[in-house]
Design brief:
By secondary structure, the chain is mainly β. Helices cover 0% and strands 69% of the residues.
Amino acid sequence: MKVKITKPDATLYEGEANLVQLPGTGGLFEVLNNHAPIISSLRQGTLRLVDNEGKEQTFGIRGGVVKGQRNDLLILVQ
């Protein structure tokens, strides 16, 4: 799926991923390929991303929102 992680002053990641794990306000959750449409708020924590080559990246965030549909995930963080 296409993933874009952005904050007000920079883009942190833009590319393909197989898995994104997010710290939602209701708890930790994962988004995989072909996930149902989603909009959620995010709390402070660690965002984990596994790209198509199996490489894992983590990003510390202070909060934000995520919107996803049709294998296109946009994550706005602070």
